[in-house]
Design brief:
11 helices; Nucleotidyltransferase, domain 5; 13 strands; 318 residues; 2 domains; five-stranded mixed sheet; single chain; binds zinc ion; alpha/beta
């Protein structure tokens, strides 16, 4: 069938995707329309089941079936299931190589196990890659040919869209921007490296910087946001310093990949008004002039739904 007719046929058929976002705390599910709209959601906590892989996968399969029937749909209405996990995945084989935050997950053939249980096509990928796909296809980076999607949180991750394709690297492990060294003599990181980007802009480092600036021991980025809104000069200085680290980390990426757009998501990106102007200023000042002058910075469009919506793109592109 010619490609265009095939695409129209797909939309006409209105085949839905079940998106699954596996996190260390919760597992979120969503039923996603072909145009990226989530029509039903559910979730369950990870911890009660994380002692046994078999138990966790069993509950997951049950919840997937439940969300399909909850909308009066049958298996024939479902194009497939997309699962995002926080770790290393062999995408071609559908094997979860390693999940740092869920114990015991090493070399789990999740695709094969779920396909056997569900009798539906299943695709498994790294969660940040799914977030990147969602922002590129339906979100802040819609229609952009080259973009970087940066996720800021406890960990710092990224996904790369290069020449209109998700760039995976040799082992589907490309995009670890959080572990790009900014300082060869910097603090040691869990990855084995030193002075990684994450050690400057990950949540723990931002909290430590906030404590240091405010001379307290219980500061958070939310508190620093409130203080900055009240005009506190130290809090404003904190945001300037945090954003300078972010901008510096992105300068190398802008020079290397020449993206049109950097999409920034994750909790800290809520503080856009204190972060983005400085990030832009640092990139403009320190990047090579052509690359630095053309790159735009935008906040991610999707919050908690990003991984689920990305699952739709993953299944659709498979
Ligand atoms: Zn590292």
């Amino acid at each position: 069938m010619p490609y265009l007719i095939q695409q129209r046929f797909k939309v006409f058929m209105k085949k839905y995707v079940v998106g699954v976002d596996v996190g260390g705390t919760n597992i979120k599910l969503g039923l996603v329309h072909p145009r990226g709209v989530v029509i039903a959601r559910s979730h369950f906590p990870t911890k009660p089941f994380s002692s046994s892989k078999k138990k966790l996968i069993g509950v997951l399969a049950h919840e997937i079936e439940k969300i399909i029937t909850s909308q009066g749909l049958k298996d024939k209405d479902i194009a497939g299931v997309g699962v995002g996990v926080p770790g290393l995945v062999d995408f071609d084989k559908g094997v979860v190589r390693f999940l740092p935050n869920i114990p015991g997950w090493k070399n789990v053939p999740l695709k094969a196990i779920l396909e056997k249980k569900l009798k539906l096509p299943v695709y498994v990928d790294n969660d940040v890659k799914l977030i990147t796909l969602a922002e590129w296809k339906f979100g802040a980076g819609c229609g952009v040919k080259n973009l970087i999607c940066l996720t800021l949180g406890t960990g710092v991750g990224s996904g790369l869209i290069l020449d209109n394709r998700l760039y995976r690297g040799s082992a589907n492990a490309a995009g670890e921007l959080g572990h790009m060294p900014l300082n060869e003599k910097g603090p040691a990181c869990n990855c084995g490296g030193f002075g990684c980007f994450e050690k400057y802009v990950g949540n723990q480092s931002l909290f430590a910087l906030a404590d240091q600036v405010m001379k307290k021991s219980d500061m958070t980025t939310q508190k620093m946001f409130a203080l900055a809104n009240a005009g506190n000069l130290k809090a404003l200085q904190f945001w300037r310093e945090a954003a300078t680290h972010m901008g510096n980390g992105l300068v190398g990426v802008v020079n290397l990949l020449n993206p049109q757009l950097i999409v920034i998501g994750g909790g800290v990106s809520n503080n856009e008004k204190y972060l983005f102007p400085t990030i832009k200023e640092v990139i403009k000042k320190r990047s090579m002039s052509l690359q630095g002058s053309m790159v735009k910075i935008k906040r991610a469009k999707f919050g908690d739904d990003a991984g689920i919506i990305g699952a739709q793109v993953l299944v659709d592109n498979a």
